[in-house]
């Protein structure tokens, strides 16, 4: 069996990925309107939810991740993934209406809350059953080397437009909140979300599904245990399980804390979420490029340190109300920037560092152990701890009032710090030092390269894309290599030429391999540019490709190839060039070969070259 499916053409992939991105936007709006927005927190608070209830709801959602194992088993058994995924996920979206109508069904507060928790579990169980089918499908659809860049662009697009939705939702819900119509407002907002969520799934009708070979020859238990038997992958599983435990001691309670303790309106909390989204938009392409270029281990090491500070910000919020909101806005932007990395890096490991034949089970096991168990236990313990501490462990000092939420945040800080050594143990094929990663990450060139890459891959104007490729060549940032390689397949010939020139100036082994492919691709139409760029890069890969290109009958490509071999000055080119010299009748090309031989052999003059060649044209020259 092949490890990777036959890729679709670049133009078709870009068209399909636009559909996936727009569908993802609708799915994100479903999540925002129904699940993740501040209106739901306010709605639950109005229904009498305590910190333990919030922890219980978070735990139910996390526990449902066990159904990813069911989804992985299903993925390994079916030949077609699209139809079962669409059916399961549409049912999951429609089922959320059972949660929305809870206030109209039950007068008893506790019975109502248990109904909500039960349907959160069922709703999320369906979502997680379908998730492995979808991830397996998308992983087969995307090119392996630039997978993170595609995900980053999708995440950036979705987050940017979802931010607009956040503002609209916050303003709309504010109207209901001011009039004491919280339940009605949330019901209407969630209904819109459910409709958008169903449309999201229907759009995938136009997304092709690459061939998928089900695994029928091995037993379920062997598939299930394989991720934990994989020594290199096991360290990632342990890190993710512990890290999510540490994160979820605090994460589910940030919004309830702002609404209950800080007495903020749902509008204010939601607008702070917009600030976080701005950070994610800024960070998505940046982290995607870093992960594609340097791997996931150094990214996870940096993120493990950075995420320590999230709970600390809430503990140290100033008592002065004039400073409170500005400080929270700055924190939310920074935290959103880090969240872009915490989304892309683990997702990249799951999609790139797992075997295709059992990838869905790898993903399911990691998600179940890290979120299904780690997050579930953490949410339940923290919710109970907060309610318990609120009864007696309230401390007031120097204008600060520390309650149960603060103690949970402090515990999360300590636990997050202990995750750093676990991130250091994660193994991957690429060996990039943390110091080198930080040097590139903190360089202004990397920031500039991220902006230019965004222009290169999203600008509709050809001149803008050419300008971006040219500027990337001047920056010589390693983050530009993979995007420029992708630009070798741009629909514009001018952009492809600019990308080849830029790769020649930056020069890496990966660039040489891509240029060698372009040199022999009959559709590329940049053969001469690719040959010249290979001459600038040098190395064994470039030499092999250029020697093979001596067989071409295209004079323009031959001229560029001869010039590049002369530039490389590798003696391995002497015999092929001499043979070509004697086979040619074109005097201009023969003269170019003579100049190349002079450089390679380090001779004083062309006369020595012609003498060595025994050329009859010596006297004439």
TrEMBL record:
Q: Which residues cross the membrane?
A: 20-39, 51-74, 86-107, 113-137, 157-176, 188-207, 236-254, 266-287, 299-317, 323-341, 362-385
Q: Which PROSITE patterns match?
A: HEAT_REPEAT, MFS
User: Which UniProt keywords are given for this protein, alphabetically ordered?
Assistant: Membrane, Repeat, Transmembrane, Transmembrane helix
Task: Identify the domain of life.
Answer: Bacteria
Which Gene3D superfamilies does this UniProt record tie to the protein?
Leucine-rich Repeat Variant, MFS general substrate transporter like domains
Name of this chain's protein: Major facilitator superfamily (MFS) profile domain-containing protein
| Domain Major facilitator superfamily (MFS) profile residue range list | 186-621
Q: Would I find Lyase among this entry's keywords?
A: no
Species in which this protein is naturally found: Sumerlaea chitinivorans
- MF (Gene Ontology): transmembrane transporter activity
* KW Thylakoid (keyword) present: no
Q: Which InterPro entries is this protein grouped with?
A: ARM-like, ARM-type_fold, HEAT, HEAT_type_2, MFS, MFS_dom, MFS_trans_sf, PBS_lyase_HEAT
Matches recorded under Pfam families: HEAT, HEAT_2, MFS_1
């Amino acid at each position: 069996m092949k490890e990777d499916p036959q890729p679709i053409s670049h133009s078709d992939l870009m068209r399909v990925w636009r559909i996936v991105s727009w569908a993802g936007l609708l799915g994100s709006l479903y999540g925002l309107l129904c699940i993740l927005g501040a209106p739901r927190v306010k709605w639950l608070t109005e229904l009498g939810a305590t910190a333990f209830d919030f922890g219980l709801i978070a735990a139910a959602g996390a526990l449902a991740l066990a159904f990813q194992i069911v989804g992985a088993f299903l993925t390994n058994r079916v030949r077609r993934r699209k139809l079962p995924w669409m059916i399961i996920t549409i049912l999951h979206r429609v089922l959320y209406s059972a949660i929305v109508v809870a206030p109209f069904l039950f007068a008893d507060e506790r019975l109502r809350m248990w109904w909500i928790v039960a349907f959160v579990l069922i709703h999320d169980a369906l979502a997680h059953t379908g998730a492995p089918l979808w991830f397996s499908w998308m992983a087969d659809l995307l090119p392996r080397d630039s997978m993170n860049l595609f995900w980053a662009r999708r995440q950036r697009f979705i987050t940017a437009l979802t931010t607009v939705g956040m503002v609209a939702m916050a303003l709309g819900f504010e109207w209901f909140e001011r009039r004491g119509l919280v339940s009605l407002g949330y019901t209407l907002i969630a209904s819109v979300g459910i409709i958008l969520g169903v449309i999201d799934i229907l759009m995938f009708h136009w997304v092709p599904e690459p061939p998928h070979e089900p695994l029928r020859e091995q037993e379920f238990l062997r598939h299930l245990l394989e991720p934990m038997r994989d020594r290199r992958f096991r360290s990632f599983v342990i890190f993710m399980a512990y890290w999510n435990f540490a994160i979820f001691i605090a994460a589910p309670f940030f919004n309830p804390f702002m609404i209950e303790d800080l007495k903020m309106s749902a509008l204010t909390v939601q607008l702070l979420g917009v600030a976080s989204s701005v950070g994610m938009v800024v960070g998505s392409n940046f982290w995607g490029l870093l992960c594609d270029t340097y791997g996931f281990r150094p990214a996870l090491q940096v993120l493990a340190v950075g995420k320590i500070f999230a709970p600390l910000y809430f503990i140290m919020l100033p008592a002065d109300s004039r400073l409170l909101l500005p400080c929270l806005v700055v924190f939310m932007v920074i935290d959103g920037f880090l969240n872009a990395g915490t989304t892309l890096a683990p997702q990249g490991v799951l999609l790139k560092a797992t075997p295709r034949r059992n990838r869905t089970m790898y993903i399911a096991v990691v998600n179940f152990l890290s979120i299904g168990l780690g997050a579930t236990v953490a949410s339940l313990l923290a919710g109970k701890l907060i309610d318990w501490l609120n009864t007696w462990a309230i401390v007031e000092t120097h204008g600060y009032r520390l309650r149960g939420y603060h103690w949970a945040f402090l515990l999360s800080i300590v636990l997050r710090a202990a995750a750093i050594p676990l991130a250091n143990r994660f193994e991957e094929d690429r060996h990039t030092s943390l110091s080198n990663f930080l040097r590139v990450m903190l360089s202004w060139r990397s920031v500039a390269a991220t902006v230019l890459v965004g222009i290169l891959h999203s600008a509709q104007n050809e001149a803008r894309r050419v300008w971006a490729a040219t500027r990337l060549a001047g920056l010589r940032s390693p983050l530009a290599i993979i995007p420029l390689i992708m630009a070798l397949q741009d629909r514009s010939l001018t952009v492809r030429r600019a990308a080849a020139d830029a790769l020649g100036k930056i020069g890496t082994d990966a660039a040489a391999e891509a240029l060698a492919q372009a040199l022999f691709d009959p559709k590329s139409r940049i053969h001469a540019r690719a040959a010249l760029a290979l001459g600038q890069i040098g190395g064994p890969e470039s030499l092999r490709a250029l020697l093979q290109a001596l067989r071409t009958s295209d004079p323009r490509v031959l001229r560029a190839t001869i010039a590049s071999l002369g530039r490389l000055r590798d003696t391995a080119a002497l015999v092929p060039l001499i043979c070509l010299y004697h086979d040619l009748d074109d005097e201009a090309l023969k003269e170019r070969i003579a100049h190349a031989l002079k450089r390679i052999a380090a001779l004083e003059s062309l006369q020595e070259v012609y003498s060595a060649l025994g050329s009859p044209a010596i006297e004439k020259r």
